[in-house]
Design a protein that fits this description.
It is a single chain. With 494 residues, the chain is of the alpha/beta class. The protein is built from 15 helices and 26 strands. The chain has a domain of 97 residues: GMP Synthetase, Chain A, domain 3 (2-Layer Sandwich). Helices cover 32% and strands 27% of the residues. α1 packs across α2, α6 packs across α7 and α8 packs across α10. The chain starts with 15 loop residues before the first strand and ends with a helix.
């Protein structure tokens, strides 16, 4: 991104920006590292001119150095999931036509054969870092800045390209909506190939002048120790993390639980996102910590678009209202706008926060827009001014017996069953129903549940036409790095 885009990244700022283990880095140190890395990338050229530079790095100072260095040198940053299999990495690197890959030396042995195959130069941060600063190019806000890949929960991942202007809009709307300031301290443990970690935490934090504690993984004992000590005042996670925290509370002493919960209680904000937060979990967290989770809605193509308010009512099961500068509307299957509440429709988005294109895929790009609106593929209803997500039109809306059913709604009810640990509801082709509602579940330890027991339990808790027609038991449900269940994988397994 433009050198002057992040106002706190300048040579004279001694505020702590990053904490990594026992090491700390001021904003001026991060600024210097990014400049030297950009200088090394440029080498004998004045501008990368949107060269795709990929990096395979965990949450670290090196990650921040590379991302901002690529932006400053005029390249397109391509952050990769460090948990990806080689075949997945091959798809990402090939799709983006990456020329250079930055990784820690300990990963080079694994990555070298793939880079050799694709003709990509494999480098470490130290190999690129210059000793003196070069003159950096002036970057227009309309230049391409970053390529992230879709989650691949419904189809093959596509490269989502955002401009500098796009990223700035995604950051600044959250700065305003969520009250970010230089006094904020937040842990970052989410994967940094995803909009949640990159924009919502890292970029917002650096833009606001906050302090970010970097973790390569979700280290429960260490992070909760810091929570109990009152180090953090903002916490952002996915529902899976909140579930793990509640499970962790069952394994430690009650005085320790109380201390951790008091730490959460003292924070100014707890946020949940990336996957729908079950109402049961929402209520559990409030009961334990006093925190009313702020749930929001976004996706790789738009950053965040809708959010419950920072100040005001946060409703369980709802994602709130449009963020500042973001236009949101529901449309029916005939592409007509829906004005009435309680009527399901597809969420469509307009604003500077919307991505530029799918890399190398103009057909998919064109098909994702209708009259200037980005078509999210997510179905929602408007209830008393708040949006409630029903699910993805492709996998979460089940057409059964003449009804359009929300898989997420049914999942929320099933999760209240005392024997169910995880659940995903899918529609399976059926001659009678069109799609038969099928519950895929993982049970809690030492629990048993058969279909007849589940059906009897559901009676009275949901309409008869919503009750699952079949039950499939799994040891664990397949999930991606952000904790979302990969429903196409379930279809293949049953």
């Amino acid at each position: 991104m433009k050198r002057d885009a992040f106002p706190n990244l300048h040579p004279d700022n001694s505020k702590i920006a990053l904490v990594e283990g026992e090491s700390t880095f001021t904003y001026s140190e991060v600024d210097r590292r990014a400049t030297l890395f950009a200088s090394g990338l440029l080498s004998d050229t004045s501008d990368l001119n949107e060269e795709r530079i990929a990096f395979f790095l965990p949450a670290s100072t090196n990650y921040v150095t590379v991302m901002h260095g690529v932006w400053r040198a005029g390249g397109i940053a391509v952050p990769l999931n460090v948990a990806s299999a080689i075949i997945e990495l091959e798809h990402y690197l090939s799709c983006a036509s990456v020329t250079r890959l930055i990784a820690n030396p300990e990963s080079h042995g694994t990555l070298a054969p793939l880079c050799h195959k694709l003709g990509i130069k494999l480098l470490s941060v130290d190999e690129v870092m210059a000793t003196t600063a070069a003159v950096l190019p002036r970057i227009s806000e309309d230049r391409r800045a970053m390529m992230l890949f879709t989650s691949g929960t419904t189809n093959k991942p596509k490269g989502v390209v955002s401009t500098h202007k796009t990223i700035q809009a995604q950051i600044t709307t959250l700065i305003e909506a969520w009250g970010w300031s230089r006094d904020d301290v937040i842990p970052l443990f989410l994967p940094l190939h995803h909009i949640h970690g990159i924009v919502n935490i890292l970029s917002c934090g650096l833009w606001a002048g906050a302090t970010i504690h970097l973790f390569s993984k979700f280290d429960i004992p260490r992070i909760t120790e810091h929570v109990a000590s009152g180090i953090y005042n903002v916490f952002m996670a996915v529902p899976t993390i909140y579930v793990k925290l509640i499970q962790y509370f069952d394994s430690i002493e009650q005085d320790q639980v109380r201390s951790i919960c008091d730490g959460f209680s003292a924070m100014r904000l707890n946020i949940s996102g990336s996957a729908a937060c079950p109402v049961k979990l929402f209520n559990q967290w409030q009961e334990l910590t006093g925190q009313v989770l702020l749930e929001r809605y976004g996706m790789t193509e738009i950053g965040m678009g809708i959010s419950n308010p920072y100040v005001g009512e946060r409703r369980a099961g709802c994602v709130g209202q449009p963020l500042p500068g973001v236009q949101v509307h529901l449309f029916d299957e005939d592409h007509s706008p829906i004005s009435a509440e309680e009527t399901p429709g597809e969420i469509r988005i307009k604003g500077d926060n919307v991505f530029l294109e799918y890399w190398g895929n103009p057909k998919a790009t064109d098909e994702s827009f209708e009259d200037g609106w980005f078509c999210t593929g997510d179905i929602a209803v408007l209830e008393d001014g708040y949006y409630r997500i029903m699910g993805r039109s492709s996998v979460d809306i089940i057409k059964s017996g003449g009804y359009k059913l929300s898989a997420l709604e049914i999942e929320g009810v099933l999760l209240t069953h005392e024997s169910i640990a995880e659940v995903a509801v899918i529609g399976v082709a059926d001659d009678t129903w069109g799609e038969a509602v099928t519950a895929c579940i993982a049970l809690k330890p030492a629990c048993h549940l058969d279909y007849n027991q589940l059906k009897a339990w559901c009676d009275g808790k949901m309409s008869a036409y919503k009750i699952p027609k079949a039950l499939k038991i799994f040891d664990a449900l397949p999930r991606n790095a952000m904790g979302k269940v990969i429903k196409p994988a379930l279809h293949e397994l049953i």
